[in-house]
Amino acid sequence: MESTVIAEVERLLDDLGAKLPSNRQVLILLHDYPDPDALASAAALHLLLKKRWSLKSRIMFSGIVSRAENRELLRHFKYKWVAPHQWRGRHHIPTIFVDTAPWSGNVTVPPFAQPTGVFDHHPPGKRKIPPALFVDLSPAFGAMATRLVECLIVAGIPLPKWLASIMAYAITTETCDFTRQALARDLEAYTSLLAQCNLKILGKIKNASLPRAYYGYLAEAVHNASTYGRVSWTHLTAVSQPEIVAEIADLLLRIERITWAFCTAFTEDRLIISLRSELPYVNCARLLRFLIGKKEGSAGGHGQTAAGYVNVSGLAPAEREKHRDALVSRLVTAIEGRSGETAKPLIAPLSDTSAAPALKTSKSSS
After folding, report:
1. Tell me, what CATH number does 227's domain have?
2. Residues 205-220 as b or e (16 or more Cβ within 10 Å = b)
3. Torsion sign across C-alpha atoms 198, 204, 207, 211
4. Do 335 and 223 fall into the same domain?
5. What is the CATH number of the domain that holds 58?
6. How many Cβ atoms sit within 10 Å of the Cβ of residue 14?
7. Beta strands 260-267 and 231-236: pairing type?
8. Pairing state of beta strands 226-228 and 134-137?
9. Collapsing DSSP states into helix, strand and coil, what is residue 135?
10. Sheet harboring 297-302: ordered strands across?
11. pTM here?
12. Are residues 232 and 250 in the same domain?
């Protein structure tokens, strides 16, 4: 680690220490339905608070973890976590937000949480940040876990093998194996973790058993998928957890000659969307925020990934479909520069293989 980075992280730790309570428990709050980066970063912060400042902390998040790989990750998680409704502690508890922020719109902030600090790698937009709040915003990082790895290294705190394993997994998933936005510091953090992690744990997470419902969602996604120009998208009729929507968007982006992909789905009173791009210079979150608008819903993300939702509560099924079609049309128009009505006749179902290039075959030599 370079001396300039060490000095930067030391200042960061001093700033954080100055904002922490002297002998009170700290709450570590994650965004709803946390991903591996949020979970691993929270565990690292829990360890940092304990070893550096002798502070107890509790990890908290709303929504369940449903993706198979993430559930397997939690099986190796050694620290306890709670949902807000399970909290039986005191009110006005100092709270550090990890991989999110009080203003992000993707986190349920319980009334007993007193915002004290933020570790996030998503751009804050034009919001004014309270000066009393400790804030570490690192949008250039590919993964939030990278920053917490640096903090533990500079603080001289060794990582247990299980924690090194899930942090290594978090960095690779957040950067899509370094094919998305990532710094040299992300790679340095990852390589330092590999020397400490349990490769068997990594293998179990990556090859977690998939529930049967996953294949139902996958079949529906493929059946509904379409492409137009550089864009591919699909829709799921109803999902109980939003993680599958992001997973489908990632899968669609892997179609050859596709540079943009998104998936929409209805869940309870929301139309949710996950957007992906392989173009390194785009800002997916800014695009989604512009299309959805502050009054209609919320959106966030960074660089080549983003997610958001539109409030469709109180609308009849037909009206919900109109909202979805309008959002799809606006998004395809923004990417391809054409109206949805013009594009409609040109949309090709993903399941139609008639236009697929023929594979060249050779005669067997046997």
Report:
1. 3.10.310.40
2. beebeeeeeeeebbeb
3. negative
4. yes
5. 3.90.1640.10
6. 9
7. parallel
8. unpaired
9. strand
10. 297-302, 305-311, 270-277, 260-267, 231-236, 226-228, 348-349
11. 0.85
12. yes
The per-residue pLDDT for 126 is: 67
Count helices and strands in the chain by DSSP H and E runs: 12, 13
Predicted local confidence at residue 125, as pLDDT: 66
Residue type, 332: V
Render the burial of 45-74: b for 16+ CB within 10 Å, e for the rest.
bbbbbeebbebebbbbbbbebbbbbbbbbe
The H or E element spanning position 180 is: none
| Alpha helices in the chain, H assignment, sequence order | 3-19, 36-53, 68-75, 144-154, 161-174, 184-194, 199-206, 212-224, 243-252, 284-292, 317-336, 340-343
Q: Name the token pair of 157.
A: 């705190």
Among 212, 147, 161, 199, CA closest to 12:
147
User: How many other CB atoms are there within 10 angstroms of residue 203's CB atom?
Assistant: 11
> How far apart are the C-alpha atoms of 170 and 38, rounded to whole Å?
8
In the 8-state DSSP scheme, what is residue 131?
T
Query: In this structure, what token pair is assigned to residue 261?
Result: 């992909």
- What one-letter code names the amino acid at 323? H
- Residue 289 contacts residue 299 (beta carbons within 8 Å): yes
Whether residue 175 is contained in a domain is answered as yes
SS3 332: helix
Residue ranges of the chain with per-residue pLDDT less than 70: 125-126, 338-366
Cβ proximity of 181 and 304 under 8 Å: yes
211 CB contacts (<8 Å, ≥6 apart)? 68
Residue count of the chain: 366
CA distance 137 to 144: 9
Which pair of structure tokens corresponds to residue 227?
Answer: 């492409």
Alpha carbon distance 350, 78 (integer Å): 42
